[in-house]
Fold:
Amino acid sequence: MAIRKQTQPGEGLALEPERQRTKPPPLYKVLLLNDDYTPMEFVVVVLERFFRMSREQATVVMLKVHRDGRGVCGVFPRDLATTKVEQVAAFAQRHGHPLACVMEEN
Ligand code: TYC
Structure:
C-alpha cells in the first residue's frame, strides 16, 4: 500500500496509508435459461464441463433452472464470463440444442 506524508497538528510529519482510489473490477453472473427442448442430461454435462461442478451440484443447479426459469452457474470477471457464455453457446449449437446462457453485472 502507498503511503503519503501528512502534517499532524503540533507535530512534525506522520506517515499515513493513502486512501484506496481504484475500484475492484466488476464481476458478472453467468446464468443458464430454461427452455422446453434441451435435455436435462445435456445441461448437467454443461455445468460439469464448463463450470467445474460435481454431478450432484450440477443436478441441483439444472433443476433450479428447470423450475425457476434461470439460475446462476458462477460469478466471474468480465472476460472469463464472456468466454463461458461463448463456450456454452458453441457447445449447445454443435449438439443442436437451444440452451441459452447469458451474463449480467453482479
Ligand atoms: N426444461 C428442460 C427439460 O425439461 C431442461 C432444462 C434445464 C433446459 C435447464 C435448459 O437451462 C436449462 N428437458
About this structure: Residues 78-94 form the longest helix (17 residues). The CA atoms of residues 54 and 99 lie 20 Å apart.
